Amino acid sequence: MNIVGLSKTFYKDGQPIKVLDNITCTVPPGSITVFMGPSGCGKTTLLRIIASLESPDSGAIELDDTEKGQISFLFQEPRLLPWKSVYSNVELVLRNMMSTPAERHDRAMHMLELVGLSSFARFTPDELSGGMRQRVAIARAFAYPARLMLLDEPFQSLDYSRRRGLLDSFLQLWQSDRRTVLFVTHETTEAVLAADQIVLLSDLPAHVTAQLSVEGKQLERKLDDPELLTLQASMYRTIDRSYT
């Protein structure tokens, strides 16, 4: 995927507010690209443009052939249907993709097993903890056969230990079924653990201040690794400069 010169301006009370300013970067297929920047800098707007939910004022999204069509979303909240079971929330996204109930059942249960929730298949979302609900959302996102996934701070509302556990669950699924992932966060630890590359954005109007590569397999990374500590320090310096 190529993001080429994206710009976007909104209007409030007749006054222009430029949100994105010539955002340009390349996203390799089957990789995880993390977008980091201050709160309110337009990261969610960028995802919405990529998903064709917003139109840019200028610029373009150039998708690889495998990325065109369906897109999976993971939001800050799980967005499960409260009146349906855990199983039904996952199975629902398969109804236009798999013709037989048996195929859909096997796929849905397989995804729930991978996130450790197969024994909760008949529960409803309100019977689960917040972290468990987000694991259902992860299972649903991977059950849907989209090659492009957009993550909008999906673990933000959880404490650190639950965030880390969910990130590991997500990465385990991704390692076995690599999609092109664009992941918005403002947590540097999430960025260095998950990303193949990190794109740092400035405050409004957001522009790219740095594009950093992260080496090594995601699930083998340790936060106390000297290379990751150096990378985080570089990120903080770049973020600090974007405010000055």
Largest sheet: 6 strands, mixed
* Domains, number: 2
Query: How helical, in percent, are the residues?
Result: 25-40%
Uncertain segments are: none
CATH architecture of the largest domain: 3-Layer(aba) Sandwich
**Terminus-to-terminus distance:** 31 Å
For the biggest β-sheet, the strand order reads: 5-6-7-3-8-9
Helix-strand makeup class: alpha/beta
CATH structural fold name of the largest domain: Rossmann fold
CATH class of the largest domain: Alpha Beta
Which word captures the global form? globular
How much beta, percentage-wise?
A: 15-25%
Q: With helices defined by DSSP (H or I, 4 residues minimum), what is the helix count? A: 7
Total beta strand runs: 9
**Helix and strand run:** EEEHEEHHHEHEHEEH
Q: Taking all residues together, what is the mean pLDDT?
A: 88
Radius of gyration (CA) equals 18 Å
CATH superfamily of the largest domain: P-loop containing nucleotide triphosphate hydrolases
How does this model look, in words?
There is one protein chain. Helices cover 34% and strands 24% of the residues. By secondary structure, the protein is of the alpha/beta class. The protein has 2 domains: 2-69 and 148-242, P-loop containing nucleotide triphosphate hydrolases (Rossmann fold, 3-Layer(aba) Sandwich), CATH 3.40.50.300; 79-145, no CATH class. The strands form 2 sheets. Strands 5-6-7-3-8-9 form a 6-stranded mixed β-sheet, sandwiched between helices. A hairpin with a 6-residue loop joins strand 8 (197-201) and strand 9. The longest helix is centred in the last third of the chain and has 17 residues, at 160-176.
